[in-house]
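Before our next group meeting I need something from you. Please put the record directly below this note.
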Amino acid sequence: VYGEGTAVLAGDALLTDAFMLAASAELRRPKDIALAIGILAHNAGSLGMVGGQMLDIDSEHRQLTEQEVYDVQSRKTVALINAACVLGVIAGGGSAKQLQAAAEFATHIGLAFQIRDDILDVIGDQSQLGKAIGADEAKNTFLRIYGIEKCKELVATLTEKAIRSLDAFEDHSYMRELAQSLVSRMM
């Protein structure tokens, strides 16, 4: 079992490993390596996952506004998904238009994923999810602000926006199916 300090050290090690992998990637152009490291730093740092976690911790004892919940989730879930999507386009030699499309896709699908996760914390089955249900009850979530029905509508709307952003890619059938699976996912 990890203690709090051990989990932080493991996270630090993973972040360092991510930068090492980005720096040693066999990309076609040196500027792609620099771009990849910049994307990773942005999505991991104070404007990304680390900053989002700090906002989340700082807000544990007060109710956040809609914008504040958006800010937290944009820096956490969305930043993680953004890094994965955009780094994939860089590694694949994608165009500037595809980089922009990947970032737009990540923004919409990241929010949809997080909102669906919040819904599943209330209506999900612990054995299917693999985590305790109701753990986020006191947390600042979109579900707390909007309720289940509005959140289901948001997941569908955000998913459709994500899918529309995929037009910059020649073959996006897999990503389209993946995005659509979020609307009804139970795990």
Remarks:
- Residues 1-5 have pLDDT under 50 and may be disordered.
- The first helix runs from residue 4 to 24.
